[in-house]
Amino acid sequence: MSAALQPDGTGRAPLNITTRLCGYFYFGMTYQGHTVRQLPLLLACLLLQACTQTQKGLEQTLLLAVNGPDDVTVTDQQVNNLPYASLYARLNDGPRIFVVLGYSEQGQQKWLTQDQAMLVTQHGRLVKTLGLPDNLLSVSNLQQDPLADSLHISNGAGWTRIVQWTEQGKVRGATVRSTFQRGTDEVLTVAGNRIPCRVWHEQVSIDSSNREWENTFWIDNSSGDVVQAHQMLEADAFPVDITILKPAKS
Prior knowledge:
Blueprint: E1 15-17, E2 20-22, E3 26-31, E4 34-40, H1 41-48, H2 53-67, H3 76-81, E5 86-91, E6 96-105, E7 108-112, E8 118-122, E9 125-130, E10 136-139, E11 158-167, E12 170-182, E13 186-190, E14 193-206, E15 212-220, E16 226-234, E17 237-246
Antiparallel strand pairs: 1-2, 3-4, 5-6, 5-17, 6-7, 7-8, 8-9, 10-11, 11-12, 12-14, 13-14, 14-15, 15-16, 16-17
């Protein structure tokens, strides 16, 4: 049995399980007594190929992500052994989940969860989601997002864009304005690494209503990558917390 997947997440090769052909995203199976449903193909490929001692560790990582406690915890070694970029996410104050990078294209990273959802990020900002109860549909003017040049953000930097999202299944849209203010620098410990970060608070508002909220981004002082973020998927609702465990390769 073999599956040709590239570690950078760009491969889209099919995977055969007995007589069933599994597509790029999700499938269900039973493996060594564990019932595994709706897993991302990328993680499942790792499990099915668990032949070496390192790959056995990947199998345990996968089973932890599926059958583990409410808040999933993956060890530093498991993160480092996994050949794919990965992150922790907490959606709408739910349990913390472990997510791997599906693929990266046109400057966007597309992260796959075990329950058929997708989170799309650009420069660390959530710009689209699929498969959630409500979803972020689009964000315009991303080329002017201050996070695109994160090491050169200045206090008071502003950004205006048009955002579309759903609320209880109904499509909403609005012009959204934000202003950045620098917070107190912090040192995060992520996957065994201490990362000095500058903290930026983004004050966000909608012109046509009184809705206001705050996003926060922890930015690596050296690389400029967003290491951690607290953002709202909808206007002032549905918080999404993300911590990048292993960043995507550029």
